Amino acid sequence: MPAFSFSFSLAFAHALVAIAALWLALAIDRWLGEPTARLHPVVWMGQYLGWVGSRIAPRPHQVKRVDLPLFFIGALTWCIGGMAVWCAALLLQSLVTLHLPAWAAAALLGLLLKPLFAWRMLRDEVLAVEAALAVSLDAGRAQLARLVSRDVSMLSEREVRESAIESLAENLNDSLVAPLFWFVLLGLPGAALYRFANTADAMWGYRGLRNGRDWTWLGKWAARADDVLSWLPARITVLLLALAAWQWPRDLGREARRTPSPNSGWPMAAMALLVGVRLAKPGVYTLNGEGRKAAAADTQRTAVLAGRAVLAWAVVASVAILAIFSMARWP
Question: What pLDDT shows up at residue 177?
């Protein structure tokens, strides 16, 4: 067989394994959901980050206005954890893809990929907020507290619903589009490193006090790393939502820039504009301020729209994998 034909065939086979693993992981997510916590790699990442943070993040009386040593400690411990995650994922991927037949490699790679994203859990948690609101406002607040880190005790029914829709839009990127984006580019290590970065940002990426400790300097590196890794996926999420709705959200850039985050505002603004509702975080931002008040049916509408975006992303990612493997193996 000519060298070119062999190289192309090998690239095609590797691409098919990756694509099959992607679709299998999505199927597992839909039908089985998340693995138990003791077997969940993201839980392990959180345990490492929690252990480090609880020992390093200063108490209020220890806070310094500028604390560069703490910044470098945060960066170093982030890099150590990220390197460990990358190496473990690379080792597992190599063992699976190099030493097993294609069908077994695809199956095991799909099982390894699944815990690194979470669409079904996100959708179910958001819809559970609406179901809880139908019982009582207090029940809705309690359910929302599982999704967001903000204080929910004083939120109105409208604000609870808006927060749930915002969480769906923002985490559509963080929990699905971004990890699969990095899987497409860098394989299992890319998806694993992104989940580590996103988990670190969720646990450390705060300005000021949280849970009795100040995270401003310890979490600064984690917050910026997540911003960098999420920048392009957040904008891809907008494209996917627009494709799912079959329309472009007008004035998107203006609305997205109303939020303090360089990334989360884009999918949230897109969702607000496409569904036609107003979304706001009291005292921080208002998206699509001229939109109507979100109703109970809008929560379901956003879930349906996001579900279509997930399917579109799976198709686009599959095509991208084929293209990337073909270019990588070109002689």
Answer: 98
Which one, of 161, 82, 171, 165, lies nearest residue 118 by Cα?
Answer: 171
Q: Which domain holds residue 241?
A: 7-328
Q: What is the DSSP string of 47-100?
A: HHHHHHHHHHSPPGGG--SS-HHHHHHHHHHHHHHHHHHHHHHHHHHHHHHHHS
Q: What is the pLDDT of residue 1?
A: 45
Nearest to 21 by CA among 86, 117, 88: 117
Neighbours of 267 (CB within 10 A): 29
Count of domains observed in the chain: 1
User: d(Cα 267, Cα 131) in Å, to the nearest integer?
Assistant: 24
Asked if residue 71 has pLDDT above 50, the reply is yes
Residue 1 lies in a domain: no
- Whether the model pTM is above 0.85: yes
Q: Which two tokens stand for residue 226?
A: 């997540």
